[in-house]
Amino acid sequence: MPVKQKEPLIMHPRPSSIVAALYTLRDLDTDVVILHGPPGCSFKHARLLEEDGMRVVTTSLDESGFVFGGHDALVEVLEKVIKRFNPKRIGIVGTCASMIIGEELHEAVMDVQPDVPVIEVEVHAGYRDNTKGVIIALESALASGIISETEFERQKSLLKEATMVEKRHGAASKEYLEPSRGDLKYKVAERLIELIKNGKKGINILNAKKETAFMFADINLAVAQVAEKMGKSSNIINMANLDEKLGLPKNRRNAREVKDDLEKAGMRIHHVIGGLDEYPIAGITASQIIGEKYTDFDFAVITGVPHALPMDNLKDMELFSITNGPRQVVPLKEMGHKHVVVEIDLHPKTLGVNHIVESEFGATLRELAKDA
Amino acid sequence: MPKQIAIYGKGGIGKSSTASNVAAACADEGYRVTIIGCDPKSDSSITLLRGRRIPTIMDLMREGEDIKEEDIVFSGYKGVKCVEIGGPEPGIGCAGRGIIVAIGLLRKISTAIEDTDLVIYDVPGDIVCGGFVAPVKKGLVNEAYVLTSGEYMPLYAANNICKGLSRLEMTLNGVICNSRGAPNEEKIVSEFAKEIGSQLLAFIPKDVLVQTCERDGFSVIEKAPDSAIAGVYRKLAKAIMAEKSAKIAVPLSDARLRELTRI
Q: Structure pTM?
C-alpha cells in the first residue's frame, strides 16, 4: 500500500481555510455570508470583509449549540438575513465546531427555501493548505451555476500552483519561520535610488495577490516616478499582473482600477504578465520575458508575492522584494533576495478601496528622491 | 439507485448478526450487497469474512495512508463488499466526526455504495451524536429498520429510535423481532409495530446456532444453510428486498410501552 509521505509539522499559525472561503465568496459578489459557528470565529477577517461591502453574520453557537446542535439557529439567522438585507446571493460557511458535530448546512436551506442562490461551504480550518477553503467554495459555486466549469478548472489549477509556491518558498516551507520586519526601508530606498541615479537598468515587477495590488502598485509607481524624476525612465521596464480580462468579477474590476491609476500617473506597463489571481504563475511569465529580453539588467524590484518568481533569470541581479508577510522575510533572503522590505498590515488597508493606496516604502522612496 | 438500509436497535440486541445474515442471504439470491460497519468496534462484517478482521478506514487515515478503494473495500461471502469505518479508542477523540470523514472518503474513492443492489449500514446502538446519523443526513439511507426483542429496555430504545427518525423525517420500513425468549414476545413486538404505524417483518427465534457459527467466523447462511434459522433470515431478506410501504413512525408514550410489555 502506498504510504503518503508524511508532511512535516508546521508550528507557526497560517492562513485559515474558513477565511479563504470567506474571501472567495466576496470575489463571487456574495452579499451576505452566514458563519455557522461560535461568535468569535474568524472575527477579524469577517470584520474586514465588511469594508468590501459584504456582510458577515454568525449563528453564534454556544456550549448549548455544540451539545444540542445548531440547526434551529441557522434557520433563524438565514430567515433574518433574507429579511434584513434582502440579498441577491447568500453564502453559508461552516466552522470547526459546526463541522465536528455534523451540522448539515443544506438542511437549513431546505427548510427556509430562499428564492436566491445560496452557496453552502462545508469547511473547517483543519486543512493543511488554506486553498482547500477556496476550492470547496468554488465547488459549491459551480454546483449552483454561479461559475462555469472552465473558470472552476482554471481556478483549481491556480490554487494548486499557489499551494506549491507556499511549500517551496513560502509560509509552508519550514517547521517554524521567525517573523521579521525585514530591512530598514530608509536604507533600502537609498540603495535603490542610488542604482537608478547611476543609470542602472532595472525591472519593476508587480506580482500581487488580488486586492493587495492597491498598495503594492504604489511601490512600483514610486519606482517609476523616481526614475522619471531622474530622467532615467528608459532604464526601467515595468511588468504587472493586471490583466482585466481574467479571474472572478472582483479581481477583474480591481485590475482595471489599479491599471487606470497607474496609467493616469503616467506609468507605462511594458508587459502584462497575468491576472490578479495569477500571482502563482505570473512570475513564470515574467521570468520567461526576462530570459528573452532583459538578462543584462542590473536590478529588479518585485512587489506582492516575490517568492513566486523563479530565480533562474534573476540570480545575477540585485533584488529588492517587498512583501506583506513578516514570515516571508527569511525564505526570501534564503532564495537570494538582497533587500527584503515588509509592508506590515498591508492587506487591511486594501479592503474597501478602488484606488491605489500609499505605501510606506513608496512614500520613503518619494521623500528620499527629493534630495537625491 | 440501490436499496440503502440502516438497521437500528439497542446495543447488543443482534444488529450485526442480523445485518450479516441478511447480507449473506441476499448474496445467495444473486444480489450485489455492500455492508458498511459504522461501529467503532468494527465487527459488522467479520462473519462474512470467515473471522478475518479487515483494516478500518479510520486506522488507515490515522497512519496517513494514501487510501485506495482496494485498501478498504473487501470481498466477503459470495462477493459481499465489506467496509469497516472503525474509530478511536473509547473515550478518546470523536467517533462521530470519524464517521462523517469516512463516509466522505468512501464516496470519493469507491463505487461500493452506488454500484450495487443493497447497501446495509450497520450503525451502533446509541446514536450519541450528529456524526452517527451522517449516512441518513447525507441522503445515503433510504430505508430504516428497527430491531428489538419483546423486553422493556430494547423496546424503549426502539421507541426512542423512532422518535429520532421522525425528527429526521425518515420513514420506518419495518420492525424486526430478535427473540430473547421473553414471554409473548412475538405478540408484544407485533403490537408495538402496529401502534407506531409500521409492521413486524420477521420474528427471529433465539437459536444458539447463530452464536456457534459466529464463534467460528461464519454466518448461519454460510455455515448452516439448511438450518431453520437460516430459513428465517432468508425470509427476512426477501421481505427487505420487496417493495413495501413506509411511513414516519409515531412513537408511543412510556406508559403505553410499559403496558405493552405486560401483555
A: 0.84
